[in-house]
Amino acid sequence: MRKIAIAAAVLLVSACSSPAPGTAKGEINVFAAASLNKTFTQLGKDFEAAHGGTSVKFNFAGSSALAQQINNGAPADVFASAAPANMKQVEDKGHVSGKAVNFVTNTLRIAVPKGNPKNIHTLADVVKPDVKLALCAEQVPCGAAAKTVFGAAKLTPKPVTLEQDVSATRTKLELGEVDAALIYRTDVQADADKLDGIDFPEMQSAVNDYPIAVLSGAKNAELARAWVDYVRGEHGKELLAKAGFTVV
Amino acid sequence: MSEQNRVPTLLLLPALLGLAFLALPLVGLLLRTPWDRLGEQLAAPAVREALWLSLITATVATVLCLLLGVPLALLLSRTRLPGIRLIRAVITVPLVLPPVVGGVALLLAFGRNGVLGRYLDAWFGITLPFTSAGVVLAETFVAMPFLVIAVEGALRGIDRRYEEAAATLGAGRWTVFRRVTLPMIAPGVLAGAVLCWARALGEFGATITFAGNFPGTTRTMPLTVYLALETDPQAATVLSLLMLVVSVLVLAGLRHRWVGVQ
After folding, report:
1. For B108, which residue in chain A has the nearest alpha carbon?
2. Could you write out the DSSP letters of every residue in B92-161?
3. ipTM of the complex
4. Which residues from B are below 8 Å from A164, CB to CB?
5. Binning pLDDT at 50, 70 and 90, where does residue A22 land?
6. Is the pTM of this model over 0.90?
7. Which CATH number fits domain B38-260: 3.40.50.2300, 3.30.720.120, 1.10.3720.10, 3.50.50.60?
8. Inter-chain contact A161–B113, Cβ cutoff 8 Å?
């Protein structure tokens, strides 16, 4: 009870302190693809440190789930999708303010546990019957990309599960429940101590563009724009590149 | 004076609010159902596959719950084991645990690297995640407490003198249980089984975490609804309606036998 009272008091106080004109302050909600989790979380901390009195909150999930939430009125200021298709779902409903811009690209890699116990080297290896494979569901960008690369390689994958976002797919691999997964280059790199990544020629057939946009329902459009500029600015580019994204 | 008139007027408003709150979402579902697309949606092979999988796994899970849960309830109500309160707490935990957490726990126990799962894999080549058996396991984990609590309540509610009389007349423990206790608690067992089945049918969190999500083997109706919501909200509405109808049918079919109401 006391905690709630204190929280309410804090909320009241923070609601009363109106932002100084000119400099963006306050809070924004950023809805971002699961694959951006690590980089955006770090960028968020740096942004808050550079812009006193601001708070960046994140909602990370599969891009299709996020698009659905935004279209159903979720309080989002910025949307960063792992594929243009999911941004378009939001654009079509008139929820994008201005125009979405692509800021990075990402590609899939084959991810296997460190040491590659199943000796996987090509895309043909992951469709072998004794290899348990996890993929993203087709609805989310990493799943759509997986479908494209298997199409390009003329292979039919037999995954044991189709996960809701790339993080869930990676988790199944990390827990040792599957032998291989198709996840983003950046996700392999983020877990380089546990996972090995394998490149394959067909990966170039599915390069994901990541669009970012301020949303028309943004409660704090000014801060939202500042965030997008920060992501596309020098420091943002540096962190994104370090995480394995290709900055465009 | 009829029963209703004894409700204090002061409580009438919150009661009606409560009713409206529970009913409104269902009304919303009915209002937004695209009736013209109903047939087409329900005929989709993916939907039939998911519904079939849901019905089978929920039924198998209920049978498992009955086989394990009724003896467990008997143990809880008829013995004075040391630490019985701890045992009861353990049994109730899945009831209050977020199902996703249950799924994680199941992975750590029965997953390929799990406490027990690693031996299942190494000795028998059995891996439960990503199989329909895994779905059954997740559903059983989440639903069994409902059955145990219902049956335990029924066991505590019956007149034990019948059991004692049977024993005095020379019936063994097994005979007393089978011929006296079980028939007396049958309505409670049935009620528990229905609750258990409904809970298993609706299971989402533990299933998607432990068993994964693949059409035909682990993608049950709730998972299908969730997936459809992201791409085709109308389809999700239709599927939700289907789940609602199934649930209501089960309730209606068993209503007159429900907990032996007079």
Report:
1. A175
2. HHHHHS-HHHHHHHHHHHHSTTSTTHHHIIIII----TTSHHHHHHHHHHHHHHHHHHHHHHHHHHS-TH
3. 0.75
4. 208, 213, 226-227
5. very low
6. no
7. 1.10.3720.10
8. no
